[in-house]
Input
Amino acid sequence: MYVTADMLLMNPEQPQETAVEVVLVRAVLDGDRDGFARLYDLYAPLVHGILLARVPRAEVDDLVQDIFLHAFRKLHTLREASSFGPWIAMIARNRAVDYHRRSKETVEISDEVRGTDTHDSKAKEILELIRSLPEAYRETLILRLVEGMTGPEIAARTGLTAASVRVNLHRGMKLLRERLGFVEGV
Amino acid sequence: MKEDYLWDKTGEPDPEIQQLEEILGALRYEPKPLELPQDLLVPRRRRNHFPLLAIAATVLLALLAAGVWLRVRTQSEPQPKQASVTPAPSTIDEKSTVATNNDEEPKQQKIEQVRKGGLPPLPRHSKHRSSSTTLPKQEREEALEAKQQVMLALRLTTEKLSLVHKKNQSPSNQIKNQHRVG
Output
C-alpha cells in the first residue's frame, strides 16, 4: 500500500516522527514544494527554540526563515532523510554562531531598545537566566519550557539520546531553580 | 511523580514548572508561513558518481596495461643499430664457436690465468643480441607469456567494465541508490 505524507501526518497514532520526515524529504526532492512547508511546520518550533537560546529574540523570526530557506537549497546534500531534525538543528546552531560573529555590537543594542514592553519582561528575565546556564542545559530547557515539547520529542527531533535529554533537563532545572531564588515574584 | 512531569508532562504536575511554562509561553514560536521565493527551484538529488568513476578507473587500467604490453614488446624486439656498433660480447655460445674455429689464443690466456691462481671472467649476457633476424627461444617464450598476461588483464578489465555497466543499468540498483541518497 502506498503511504502518502498526508496520511502519515493525519495519523495521530504514528509512533515515529522520523517516518514522516523521510516521506516529506523524499517528496520535496521529487519536486513537492508543499512537502517542505510541512517540514517547516514540524520543525520551526525546534529551530525557534535553538535560536532563542542563543540570539536576541528580535532576530529569531528572521533567522528561522533564513535557516529554512538555506535548508531548502541544501536539502539534496542530506544523506539520511531520517536525520532531517538533527541536520536542521545543526544548521540553526551554526547560524547562531555566525550571527554573533558578524554583528557583535549591534545585536545587543537592538535587543535592549526593543525590549521595553513590560508585558513579557518577566519572561525575558527568566530567559536571560536560562541563557546564562551551560549550553547543553539551556537549549533543552527552552525547548521544554518555552516551546512546550516533551523530553521524548526533544530527543527525537534533535537526535540526542533520551538519557542525555533527561539528564540535561533535570540538571538544568536544578540550576535554574537555584538562580530563580534571586528573582522576585517567581 | 514530579520528575515525570518535567520529562513528559505526565504524573503529578510541578507547580514551579507549570508557572515557568505559563510565563515563558509568551516567548513561544508563533506559526508564520514560510516564504520561499517562487523562482527557487526544488533541489535535485545528489548524483551518484560511483559508476562513472569505476568506468574511468577501468579505462585507465586498460590503458596502463596496454602501455606495459607495448613496452615489453618493444624491449623484446631486436635493435640492429646497437647490435652492429657494439662489439660482440663473449658469450658461452660464441666462445664455443670460437673454440671450434681453432682459435687457440683465448684458450691459452685462460689456462695462463688459472695457473696464476685467478679465475677467468664469467661470461656476460648482452642485452641486445647481434643476431637481428631471430629471437632466442627462451626470450620468445617470455615475450609470449607477457603478451598472454596483458591480454588476460585486458579481458578482465573489459569484463569488469561490462559488469559495472550492467549494474548501472539495472532498475534494482537505481532503487538502491535512491534509498542511499534519500
